[in-house]
């Protein structure tokens, strides 16, 4: 079964750091690009970051550039999101997502999400 | 504000048809990028509903359809059912943005 499982969310103070993890199973992880998408409470979806299958190329939304770092470990079938200098507005459910060869480039594989709350 | 514009809400009675529009610009939908649609049921992760403007993944009923024209796209739902009550999001790409993935603001569908 194709699966993405996020972990690492929690409550953190403004200015703090958190590292999210996403464990993949059921597909050849090393051949898939990966993304993080977030959703603030009661709000819509926002793309956060992208990493290529090798890890050599990364992109970030302007709102997190310079504060968040995406990385991956293909040997561990995992992708990570290191979040530093967290702000109130980073409070959201963070989803690990990717797309398979059968969906063009649409996100057809989603994790269940992990909640990040930034609050003092 | 989202790069792609959707109505905040739509509604329809069971059995009726509703259409949700997604309006972009010449730097995203109008530039030829595909539009994808997602359904998010309450408390769940989003699920892919339509990809590549018009295609349905396996398991998605043919009551759901997508189309694209110019700088806009639309999602049509016929034979509305109570279980269709959810949030719907369009997604595309934008040449003017870093990483380029963009979502619409989402539309809440209420089945009356």
Helix content of chain A: under 10%
Shape assignment of chain B: globular
Q: How confident is the prediction overall: mean pLDDT of chain B?
A: 95
Return residue spans of chain B where pLDDT drops below 50 for at least 5 consecutive residues: none
Order of helices and strands of chain A: EEEEEEEEEEE
What general form of chain A does the structure show? globular
Biggest pleated-sheet summary of chain A: 7 strands, mixed
Determine the number of helices of chain A (DSSP H or I, runs of at least 4 residues): 0
N-to-C span of chain B: 28 Å
Count of alpha and pi helical runs of chain B: 0
Largest interface: A-B, 24 and 24 residues
How are the SSEs ordered, and which strands pair?
The complex is a heterodimer of chains A (120) and B (112).
Chain A: E1 3-7, E2 10-12, E3 18-25, E4 34-39, E5 45-51, E6 58-60, E7 68-73, E8 78-83, E9 92-98, E10 109-110, E11 114-118
Parallel strand pairs in A: 2-11
Antiparallel strand pairs in A: 1-3, 3-8, 4-5, 4-9, 5-6, 7-8, 9-10, 9-11
Chain B: E1 9-12, E2 18-23, E3 36-40, E4 47-50, E5 64-69, E6 72-77, E7 86-93, E8 101-103, E9 107-111
Parallel strand pairs in B: 1-9
Antiparallel strand pairs in B: 2-6, 3-4, 3-7, 5-6, 7-8, 7-9
